[in-house]
Amino acid sequence: MAEILVLYYSRGGATAELARQACRGIESVPGATAKLRTVPPVSAESERPTKPVPPSGPPYATLEDLRTADGLLLGSPTRFGNMAAPLKYFLDGTGSLWLSGALAGKPAGVFTSTQTQHGGQETTLLTMMLPLLHHGMYLVGLPYTEAALQQTTAGGSPYGASHVAGAQDVPQLGAEERQLAQALGRRVAALAMRLGTPPG
User: Fold this and answer.
1) How far apart are the C-alpha atoms of 19 and 129, rounded to whole Å?
2) What's the total number of domains in the chain?
3) What Rg, from alpha-carbon coordinates, does the chain have?
4) Tens digit of pLDDT for each residue in 140-173?
5) Helix H or strand E encompassing 132
6) What Cα–Cα distance (Å) separates residue 73 from each residue in 44, 106, 184?
7) Which of 79, 151, 175, 177 has the highest CB neighbour number within 10 Å of its CB?
8) What phi and psi, each to the nearest 5 degrees, are found at residue 14?
9) At 35, which CATH number?
10) Is 83 helix (H, G, I), strand (E, B) or coil?
């Protein structure tokens, strides 16, 4: 069995929907299971601390979730061509996993959502890859052998799955966007199954 952690931050719902589609792709691979987790919003020091359990949706991720996962899918909305602060804050706290090499040799993929067509999707996907490279993970993208990548007029990139919400900020994914998110999940899960559990 391979357990793939799908870890994301979402405010408008589109990134959360990409995460759910990625889970579908993971669970279409025999022997693979998806574990869906999110991260809390970042609050100012003067505000009340975040509750340990969200009022709805998946639980908040822990370092143990990352350590025990056989693969990772990481998702964030775009913030000026970069990942959102809550996800970056969580990743900044993974130094102990880096020191132990706990994520080294595991496959990972990334996904994002923007409101506009040219809102920085690819730079966001690339910036999410950087900490994963430092952790020694194997990055998984979407090749053009995925037919939906050639057909999409909205989200989708060789760097990872994505969604364009448009001016109305609609979290509903298009057909190709759903297909590509599922394909990314399948690809990470299939590689995790082939690699087995890496040492660490």
Assistant:
1) 17
2) 1
3) 16
4) 999 999 999 999 888 899 999 999 987 776 678 9
5) helix 121-134
6) 28, 11, 8
7) 177
8) -70, -45
9) 3.40.50.360
10) strand
